[in-house]
Amino acid sequence: MKLNTYSKHIFIIAFLLIGCAKVYSQDTRESLEERRIELRDEIQKINSLRSSNKKKEKSVLTEVEDLDRQIRTTENLIKVTNQQANILTRDISSNTSKIQTLRKELESLKEDYGKMIQKSYKSKSQQSRIMFLLSSQNFLQAYKRLQYMKQYANYRRKQGDEIKVKSEELQVLNINLLDQKKVKEKLVIENRETRAQLEQNRKSQQVLIKSIRSKEGVFASQIKKKQQEINAIDRQIDEIIRASIAKANKESGSSSRDVYELTPEAKALAANFASNKGKLPWPVRSGVISMRFGTQQHPIVKSTTIESNGVRIDTDKGAKARAIFGGTVVSEVQAVKGANKAVMVRHGDYITIYNNLSNVYVTKGDVVSLNQDIGEVATSSSSGKTTLHFLIYKNTDKMDPEDWIGKM
């Protein structure tokens, strides 16, 4: 008895594990396909942005940086496509095994059913059935024989139904197998084309990098100078935020200068903002990340590091920056030195900053709503790039926007 109970438990656990594995496999396939589509869209967007800027005389360094971003995205696409192909290979193998098992079961069922039909045929006449009943020695035996005949008929019907079900299941599996093979073939062809494009981009990159290597010191100086300009802009932003906190607290009677003194309404707004972490919309309708948050090694000039207090998003010419959450414009639209204009929107003790705008549509004190356009992103006259500098602060602490924006 104990052994039977143990066996049942093992069977149940095994069944659950198989079920979980199927669900996990399905989730993995769907998430990989979603990621593949995202990467393809990103590559197309990068290509589109590069094509629209071809007429501009960009520096070699900018061209290599753009190419490097495209190469890294393409490598990720190949990796994801390979993972999809591997899962499909496992599924195809599994379905092939299931088909073989079903065919054997179907053959066995048909064989048994054939024997049953033959046996039934030999005694199928109505007269033989009546004689079978009438030859009973008593009423009880006749009743039992009648029940046997009914059970036999039911069993035949069940066998026929089971053959039908197994045949349909086999048909579905065959169709699924063909579909999986077609999808895998498509992925393999796509991967082959993607690899060819990757090799072409790598060759172009190597040519450009060779010209950079010969003047690495010059480019390192350019990067350093550019970083100094960025640092100066970031310091101005920090000062504006501190001034905003100090002013707001002074008006509320608080002496704190580093954190906002929150009203109950502001606390609720901040909590709502925080609860949407990882789900907030992009600050532009479409674009690609050209610089990420934090200190990082320059992708081309390895001897140089760059630092970013937010993210930079390359977008389409004429693109609009939009509020990622409801809030209030906390300072007058600032003409930040060296970086066009910036808009700061307060959400309790969180601040979102939309920098490098050529035109703005809001002023200090305006209440903005989710996805409301707040300004037009500036386009560089030298590179032709339209880039939004986007930052998130909590009081004076810098946040990584990628932790807050969905699928960034």
UniProtKB/TrEMBL annotation:
Keywords linked to the UniProt accession: Coiled coil, Signal
Secretion signal, residue range per the UniProt entry: none
Keyword Coiled coil: yes
Annotated PROSITE patterns: PROKAR_LIPOPROTEIN
Entry-linked CDD domains: M23_peptidase
Domain M23ase beta-sheet core: 308-401
Gene3D superfamilies attached to this UniProt entry: 6.10.250.3150, Glucose Permease (Domain IIA)
PANTHER family: L-ALA--D-GLU ENDOPEPTIDASE, PEPTIDASE-RELATED
Protein name (database record): Peptidoglycan DD-metalloendopeptidase family protein
UniProt source species: Gillisia hiemivivida
Organism taxonomic ancestry: Bacteria, Pseudomonadati, Bacteroidota, Flavobacteriia, Flavobacteriales
